[in-house]
Amino acid sequence: MLVKLENPGLLSRVVEIISELVIEVKIKVDEEGLSITAMDPANVAMTKFVLPKSSFSVFETEKEILGINLDNLKRILKRSGSTSSVVLERKENLLNIQIHDRIKRNFNLSLIEIEGEEREMPEMEFSSMVELNSSDFIDSIEDCMVVADACSFIIKDGKFVIEAKGLNSAMSEFSGDEAKISAENCKSRYSLEYLQKFIKGAKLSEKTVLRFANDHPLRVDIKNDFMDLSFLLAPRVETED
Fold first, then answer.
1. What are phi and psi of 49, to 5 degrees?
2. Which residues does 17 contact at the CB level (< 8 Å), separation at least 6?
3. Residue 7 burial (CB < 10 Å; 0-12/13-18/19+)?
4. Which of 9, 72, 107, 119 is found 20 to 30 A from 127 (Cα to Cα)?
């Protein structure tokens, strides 16, 4: 396996985001590209990241499954700069990482054994889909974090509401003018601890797509011209204050 990225900044940022959910992952490299599918240790959130073959300037590989400690990979990728290119090459039980800039630097990262089968993001049915500006989604979640540790996603009469209630409250409301809403009336509550991590991914795209249903998992899809990043989050089902 030998692949080359001309601009590794995107991979570096996504690895940093995913490392906040899970530390050890299996990275799959095959004819489609590079991908990570992983679940956090609490079995509350799942993520899938795809960097397609077209994003690489060099892509020579059979199917490879690489057991990687993301904290270690993150530290190495952060050593690259805005004008760097990065080459990833498997050498037996090592991942050789070359950073090409004014000089060429070499790192070797030990591959690790990770138990369990390859994971796949489950196919699910959702009654509601909302596409909105990522900046609006980020602001709404950050507003909720000021007052509570969970928030509700609500569809009512064609409007989408993100609301958090504790001793204090915060609310953002979107009509069809501010977001694309294709939804049935529903309500589901989610942990802001996890949503706080997801919105770091939302910064990588102008738009974020949310899919959910009544007391149902939330799927967050973030795409740009170079990658697909998705999150799945279990609902927080409990009596509200």
1. -125, 130
2. 197, 200, 201, 229
3. middle
4. 119
Cα–Cα nearest to 182, from 125, 124, 217, 130: 130
Q: Residues 172, 184, 180, CA angle at the centre, nearest 5°?
A: 55
Interatomic CA distance for residues 6 and 36, integer angstroms: 20
How many whole angstroms separate alpha carbon 90 and alpha carbon 61? 10
CA 65, 67, 68 angle in degrees (round to 5)? 125
CA 42 to chain centre: 17
121 backbone dihedrals φ, ψ, rounded to 5°: -70, 125
At CA 178, angle to CA 142 and CA 157, rounded to 5? 95
Length of the chain: 241
pLDDT tier for residue 48 given thresholds of 50, 70 and 90: very high
Please, are residues 23 and 70 in contact by the beta-carbon 8 Å criterion? yes
Query: Residue ranges of the alpha helices (H) in 94-177?
Result: 134-145
Tell me what pLDDT residue 119 has. 85
Mean pLDDT computed over every residue of the chain: 95
Confidence at residue 116, expressed as pLDDT on a 0 to 100 scale: 80
Q: Average pLDDT for residues 80-87, to the nearest whole number?
A: 94
For residue 205, which of 173, 227, 182 has the smallest C-alpha distance? 227
Residue 27: which residues within 8 A CB-CB, separation 6 or more? Answer: 34, 35, 36, 65, 66, 68
DSSP 8-state assignment for residue 214: T
Which domains are seen in the chain, by residue range?
Answer: 2-39+50-110 (3.70.10.10), 128-233 (3.10.150.10)
Helix (H, G, I), strand (E, B) or coil at 147: coil
